[in-house]
Design brief:
homodimer, 320 residues, alpha+beta, Phosphorylase Kinase, domain 1, Aminoglycoside 3'-phosphotransferase, Chain: A, domain 2, 5-stranded antiparallel beta sheet, two-stranded antiparallel sheet, 9 helices
């Protein structure tokens, strides 16, 4: 829920004049999205999203993100594709910030998750992973194993403010993951943030994947584990095996998942849970007073982590 | 900047099915607007705004606001018009809140005000006032003279936190306004909140007036004074007489302003400044920690008030 940067009429007009999309007819800040400033823009040629990249996205990563979206869109993945201005560039500058215009996707993100959503997502994720194999840029995951302990250290002293004993739980989990994290699994392009608010549906059909600003090269099964965590736990934090089954089997119909990946799923799912637990913990402890964006409760991901800690075998996720 | 109420897919679908606008293709919370929850909704029939009315709007006032918009739109004023559902009703309920769908207006609100904007606004406001004469419902202004002292009393003790001496300045101004507020001036439908973010332009032309949720019956010149305060002072709080001249002369071309109204303009402008100074002061002192909406600085309106206090004659506003 965030419009951080207000764009003046003059700046907008000058910026849009460099694209072949006609004059702007309306321009409204979108409340969703927490990292960047997003405007829904209607021009004589249709609807577009204009994004200004705020502090949390590193400018040097933007060519990777924008090129990836363009590559995936061309490969038939339903994701926004950046427009090129007359100078050929997709990444430009507006109000002193990196900025881009991308195509608009119809659809709404699901507020209530049904098993059919999970099946659709499994299919779309596998197709993204398969298509991504042809993309020739690479970006390491800035929020994987090596990053977790330094991130934890920044919150360690105050973690018990959230829940007594939390620091000890996190420290032990880091020990476990550092000792057991797989070294060799199939890698490729991961979205790495496919939460429901980044996935659009029209009726029962998936119509769009958005927000590629955490995309990176990492274990593909890690991306699937992020989705499992984000889509297959209920509001009371119980695991819904029906949803997981639908997601996993739909995914496996589109991409062959190796035995090694399946065997690694429990530890990978723990890591995927810890990653969001650590960033939420940090944001919870460090969000400025009066911030526009309300931080998410880290305890939700503690509960998910604890579920995975007691999983004895991958079959418990509903894998056949 | 506010989406207070999240609408589930099921609720949205059921709500929209009662209108003749086709299926929903996209649905995005709008960051602008501070009183209600607004979604920009694309359906098979076009773009619409879906509004859920939050606490600050009294449900009993909604028929006045919605009927007024419909009346004015039919009279050719460029304002949103409420859609009627199949049951004939424009005011309905969604997520336990009063809700309505209104037509979408193209245009952007001007972030930087030019004199041409002021001229366009003067014309549109006079037309609104003239058209409003035929509207047969009435709503007293809840934020006029009688309301100001009780409102001040709620902030009086802490007013000096904003600026030492502020409570004394406000108390004296209330004394002055209570002694000098006119009793008889032409009354009619006032928008009563025509700040730049409620006025859309396409290029140089005014294309829309929105947000009628402070509309009321009051002195028409009071509505004009609100606009003078909101549009004709620069960011450094200096008065721009060129803008005021353009606004006032454009207004007077469309509606005859009486001698009494002109003579009253300085005191009315003081009242119009005090009204926003008092609500901003209250909001500044009482906004909850971490609120989504950042309160506006009350001192801007103190400076505007102090300008009007030293006006010796209406001619100083640029009236011929």
């Amino acid at each position: 829920m965030a419009v951080y940067t207000e764009v003046s009429d003059e700046d907008l007009e000058a910026f849009v004049a460099d694209y072949d999309i006609g004059a702007v007819l309306s321009f409204k800040g979108i409340a969703e999205g927490v990292e960047n400033t997003n405007y829904l823009m209607q021009t004589e040629q249709g609807q577009f999203i204009l994004t200004l990249y705020e502090k949390r996205v590193l400018p040097q990563d933007l060519p990777y993100f924008l090129n990836l979206m363009e590559f995936l869109a061309e490969a038939g993945i339903p994701c926004p594709t950046p427009l090129h201005a007359e100078d050929g560039k997709a990444l430009r500058e507006l109000c002193g910030r990196p900025a881009a215009i991308v195509t608009f996707l119809n659809g709404m993100w699901p507020k209530k998750i049904h098993a059919t959503h999970c099946a659709e997502l499994g299919t779309a994720l596998a197709r993204l992973h398969t298509a991504g194999a042809g993309f020739d840029m690479s970006r390491p995951n800035g929020l994987t194993l090596e990053a977790w302990r330094p991130l934890f250290n920044e919150s360690a002293e105050r973690a018990d403010e959230i829940l007594p004993g939390l620091a000890e739980i996190l420290s032990r989990e880091l020990d476990y993951l550092e000792a057991n994290w797989p070294e060799r699994l199939p890698v490729g392009i991961c979205h790495a943030d496919l939460f429901p608010d980044n996935v659009f549906f029209l009726g029962q059909s998936l119509s769009g994947l958005i927000d590629f600003y955490f995309a990176c090269n990492d274990f593909l099964i890690y991306d699937l584990a992020i989705c499992l965590n984000a889509w297959c736990f209920e509001r009371d934090n119980s695991f819904n095996i029906t949803k997981a089954k639908r997601m996993l089997s739909a995914y496996r119909k589109e991409r062959d998942v190796s035995e090694a990946e399946i065997a690694a799923l429990p530890v990978i799912a723990r890591g995927a849970a810890l990653r969001f637990l650590l960033t939420r913990l940090y944001d919870w402890l460090n969000h400025p007073e009066g911030a526009l964006v309300k931080p998410k409760d880290p305890r939700e991901y503690l509960s998910i982590l604890q579920f995975h800690q007691q999983v004895a075998a991958p079959g418990e996720y509903g894998l056949d």
